[in-house]
Amino acid sequence: METYISLAHGDGGELSHRLIRDIFVSAFGDKNAVMFDAAAITMATHKIAVTTDSFVIKPIFFPGGSIGKLAVAGTVNDLAVSGAKPAYLTCGFVIEEGFPISNLKKIVTDMANEAKKSGVTIVAGDTKVVERGSADGVYINTTGIGVYQPEIGCSLEFAEGDAVIVSGTIGDHGIAVLTARGELGITAPVNSDCASLNNMLEAILKDTSGIKIMRDPTRGGLATTLVEIAEDFQLTINIQETAIPVKAEVHGVCDLLGYDPLYLANEGKAIIIVSAKEKDKVVEILRKFPEGKDAAIIGSISSKEKGRLLLETPLGAKRLLTRLSGTMFPRIC
Amino acid sequence: METYISLAHGDGGELSHRLIRDIFVSAFGDKNAVMFDAAAITMATHKIAVTTDSFVIKPIFFPGGSIGKLAVAGTVNDLAVSGAKPAYLTCGFVIEEGFPISNLKKIVTDMANEAKKSGVTIVAGDTKVVERGSADGVYINTTGIGVYQPEIGCSLEFAEGDAVIVSGTIGDHGIAVLTARGELGITAPVNSDCASLNNMLEAILKDTSGIKIMRDPTRGGLATTLVEIAEDFQLTINIQETAIPVKAEVHGVCDLLGYDPLYLANEGKAIIIVSAKEKDKVVEILRKFPEGKDAAIIGSISSKEKGRLLLETPLGAKRLLTRLSGTMFPRIC
């Protein structure tokens, strides 16, 4: 096999055929004896969830993950937080001419492993090659299809006193990726939290009642995602700064460089809003999973003022938080 | 609104929010009051078709279409040739910093128009922004979900004498795009055939029986797609050069530059293999549609030799055709 991707790998001819056969089919398996334009799948229900995400992360390999692992976990998580059980993924690659095929193999292996772990099947793919300088290595789109399960789901009916839970430490992904770029001039022993959360989130949906909403705080971080929930449902959300789990190393880098962990990207965390009655049970279940071991209740819902996110500082002051504004970091996912 | 895309349009914060609201939601409509991580859709059946495609075409606007029109029609066609009725699309954008927002609006409008024409709904989207020089304008992934209809479909059961039909002139897209780049040093009055074929293909599936397979000859052209069918199903396919519809202008450019129209990309053509008995009826129906007005029977299936595509030349010689090998043209779709 060739060592580098050439434009001919994207022309739909002989080399494209071999690339698909030797790299993709061998990693993802070939459900049909023949590869058609569209994959036929049978769903367990008529009500399904669909999501799409493109991944342009730089660097493509980083502590705790790769663009391949992220492309699967990220889309799996978008389905899982919507309350659906992830079932199928498609993947579309845009590859720069000259990209090492050994790296492509690593990425595809990471995708296959993460798909296996989260129980999803990759059913369709596409590869395009662009000239040197027209992309930066590889970009991957994954689109996910999930199944809504009867009797399980998020109610979207909020009440005063509902608890806001985060499933673990925030900002790990942001700091891991930024330090991996080598542009900050510092190193930090922080791994990305990149992980599929579907099994953990299915457990809390199955074993508790009273889940109001789940979201994954990726780009824009915890604060931006909570602002979106507050605005979309006209809620006032109060969070306590001291209750938010942040790794010491992440705090350290943030202090040094003036970043706010509340706005750093996460790729293996969920925000869960649940009735006050069930909050402890949810935390207890989350902590049984390695991805949820640092889960914590960080705040609650009040309806005093509409559509606002308020942060209570250690000194008791309340600060109004807004969406991330102005780029902190491009290509974080 | 801003004039150019900046990195902040991709950071998941305030500018991303406004871009989605002002460009995408306003064009595609917002099915849910709130934009979630995943769109909930209800399918008419449990058996669905899924396909994905990334579009990196250069230039993004060309005679007869744009990357937006193509991104919808291309994926609609992949579903339609599989025998499914296209229902939902997702779209993922990778945009280069500095890209004019006016162009993005044009692209999104083209997508909305083509979606309306083909009867599909765009249900989920994603936007990533990469630094100047890390992409060439804009790349779009679309993933399509279609519904298999009971009693309608392709049998995949081939017999000697089955007819090979092409729904119109070949090579139009390839020549339109290549001349639009201005690199050939010539101009040609050829429009891309870029179009959604689902309504036309549904008509032949509904009104005839005996359709064996349908495929769209995009990258790699008519010859590559027929070689794939021949190999996948171990058929010998015979086609007659004089029967293949090619526009005079396309012939002209090919003769001048040494291209073979059999290997040029098409974006609004289908290959249909049908029983000998039904072939005339299929052509008759195809010709009722503007996209099918030049439909023609170009060959037939024999089982004398397995897995081969043979071209009968005007002088009666038979030439063995293989897949496209070596890049003719990158970024044709």
TrEMBL record, chains A, B:
Belongs to the HypE family. NCBIfam families: hypE (TIGR02124). InterPro entries: HypE (IPR011854), PurM-like_C_dom (IPR010918), PurM-like_C_sf (IPR036676), PurM-like_N (IPR016188), PurM-like_N_sf (IPR036921). Coiled coil: none annotated. PANTHER family: CARBAMOYL DEHYDRATASE HYPE, HYDROGENASE ISOENZYMES FORMATION PROTEIN HYPE. This is Hydrogenase expression/formation protein HypE. It comes from the Bacteria. Residues 37-147 form the PurM-like N-terminal domain. Residues 160-309 form the PurM-like C-terminal domain. The gene is hypE.
